[in-house]
């Protein structure tokens, strides 16, 4: 494709993504479906440029305006193009071939700007409300977190213990030219170098590996489902954690995968088929007080509530979330999280375990929800310290992964997405 055409196409995609009215990955996928002739390299440039712009939106908007026409309407036309140029993730010579002399001069001015001299908001690259909440929680550690959130996340795999050992999967990946190292904490995980295509590998098609962040694996390890148990994955979605729990149960017992979204549960089906699991029972529920939940009350040994949340722990993978979430969304999510946790708790058998988890960085969706649950249900449920549970599940360095009783994972400390989890036992 001609350099100009690729830059124009990137600008078009960016214009659609920057409306921020839909998840960026959905907009990118829809765009690729409309442009089926694009090759893998062009797709890479389009998608990665979009993500780079989303990551650094305030900085790039500032740089785009440098020396620009002062009339806002006049700037509007070239703004997206300038953002695309600043975020360009393709060949640089190719990009330069598409630029006008004016654009080359502007780009030189933009590249000469020293980020250290810019205001804080252009360095941490977060909306003010979120920066304030994280600064209050982290103090000096705020800036290392902001730097970590500005980087792309690594690709982690979970090896399906039903199918093979981690070392063997590592060896087979190496034979396919893919370098992977054991993840530092999860005994099931491999961290892959780069972002290789995996879906054509026999290893993937036979269900021996699944793409899953190490943090997600740790949530399944904390739940610690065993052979022959009755287990509920209450917010199973497309089943990332369901698959890990089912394998930990060695394909025995009964694992119910509940979700209100039939669409997400449908995405679990092909993954289940690959995994070799036959102990999983996906079920769409109308809401958290569905009759199905009532029928199983008091019968379940392990209940995982991987609650709907702001997703702000996954900003490295979904940088659009920082611009698409708001304090009002978080307040509404907190209400839903409390309701879902209270309802799911009714499933837990005496002596059984309840795990509440999110991929949010915010206290409001994490500690506050757990403390609210303690206040309302402290007589029936006692907290279990995550460090002990993880150590029993053979997680290395378990005591470095916790804050108080909770599992608390941070991208800048642990290299995982941000996660929170609290476990309780029914008395
Ligand atoms: C964080 S996602 C789950 C991700 C999934 N566990 C995984 O590992 O891939 C949260 C899920 O909760 C579901 N959900 C939202 N409200 C719910 C409710 N009231 N009861 C059960 N599930 C709900 C959403 O449809 C979404 O799939």
Tell me briefly what this model is.
The protein has helices spanning 3-17, 24-34, 40-55, 57-64, 72-87, 92-96, 101-111, 120-124, 128-138, 142-149, 166-175, 202-205, 214-223, 240-248, 262-275, 291-295, 321-324, 327-345, 367-377, 386-392, 411-414, and strands spanning 155-159, 180-182, 189-192, 209-211, 230-233, 254-259, 280-284, 300-306, 348-358, 381-384, 402-403, 406-409, 419-426. It has 427 residues and is of the alpha/beta class. The structure holds S-adenosylmethionine.
How large a portion of the residues is in β-strands, by DSSP E? 15-25%
Q: What is the percent of helical residues?
A: 40-55%
What is the domain total for the residues? 3
**How would you describe the shape?**
globular
Main sheet summary:
9 strands, mixed
CATH topology of the largest domain: Rossmann fold
The average pLDDT value, as a whole number, equals: 96
> What is the second-level CATH architecture of the largest domain?
3-Layer(aba) Sandwich
**CATH uppermost class of the largest domain:** Alpha Beta
Could you name the CATH homologous superfamily of the largest domain?
A: Vaccinia Virus protein VP39
Bound molecules: S-adenosylmethionine
- Total number of β-strand segments? 13
Radius of gyration of CA atoms, rounded to a whole number? 23 Å
Distance N to C terminus: 65 Å
Unreliable parts: none
Number of helices: 21
* Alpha-beta content class: alpha/beta
Protein name: RsmB/NOP family class I SAM-dependent RNA methyltransferase
Pfam families: Methyltr_RsmB-F, RsmF-B_ferredox
GO molecular function: RNA binding; RNA methyltransferase activity
Keywords: Methyltransferase, RNA-binding, S-adenosyl-L-methionine, Transferase
């Amino acid at each position: 494709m001609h350099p100009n055409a690729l830059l124009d196409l990137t600008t078009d995609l960016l214009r659609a993504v920057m409306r921020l009215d839909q998840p960026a990955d959905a907009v990118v996928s829809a765009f690729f479906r409309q442009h089926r002739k694009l090759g893998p390299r062009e797709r890479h440039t389009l998608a990665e440029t979009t993500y780079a712009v989303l990551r650094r939106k305030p900085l790039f908007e500032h740089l785009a305006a440098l020396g620009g026409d002062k009339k806002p309407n006049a700037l509007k036309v070239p703004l997206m193009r300038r953002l695309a140029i600043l975020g360009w993730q393709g060949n640089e010579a190719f990009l330069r071939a598409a630029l006008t002399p004016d654009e080359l001069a502007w780009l030189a001015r933009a590249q000469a700007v020293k980020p250290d001299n810019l205001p804080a908001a252009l360095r941490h690259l977060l909306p003010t409300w979120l920066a304030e909440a994280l600064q209050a929680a982290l103090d000096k550690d705020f800036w290392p977190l902001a730097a970590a959130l500005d980087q792309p996340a690594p690709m982690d795999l979970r090896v399906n213990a039903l199918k093979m050992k981690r070392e063997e999967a590592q060896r087979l990946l190496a034979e396919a030219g893919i370098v992977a190292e054991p993840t530092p904490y999860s005994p099931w995980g491999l961290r892959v170098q780069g972002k290789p295509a995996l879906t054509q590998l026999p290893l993937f098609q036979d269900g021996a590996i699944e793409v899953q962040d190490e943090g997600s694996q740790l949530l399944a390890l904390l739940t610690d489902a065993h052979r022959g148990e009755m287990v509920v994955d209450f917010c199973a979605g497309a089943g990332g954690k369901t698959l890990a729990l089912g394998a930990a149960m060695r394909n025995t017992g009964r694992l119910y995968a509940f979700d209100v979204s039939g669409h997400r549960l449908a995405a679990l089906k092909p993954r289940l088929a690959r995994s070799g699991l036959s102990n999983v029972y996906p079920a769409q529920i109308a809401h958290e007080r569905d009759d199905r939940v009532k029928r199983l009350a008091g019968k379940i040994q392990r209940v995982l509530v991987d609650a709907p949340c702001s997703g702000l722990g996954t900003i490295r993978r979904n940088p659009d979330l920082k611009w698409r979430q708001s304090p009002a969304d978080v307040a509404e999510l907190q209400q839903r999280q409390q309701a879902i946790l209270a309802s799911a708790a009714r499933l837990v058998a005496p002596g059984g375990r309840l795990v509440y988890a999110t991929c949010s960085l915010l206290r409001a969706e994490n500690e506050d929800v757990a403390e609210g649950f303690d206040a309302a249900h402290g007589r029936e449920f006692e907290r279990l310290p995550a460090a002990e549970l993880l150590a029993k599940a053979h997680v290395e360095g378990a005591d470095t992964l916790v804050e108080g009783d909770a599992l608390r994972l941070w991208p800048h400390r642990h290299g995982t997405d941000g996660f929170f989890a609290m476990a309780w036992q029914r008395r």
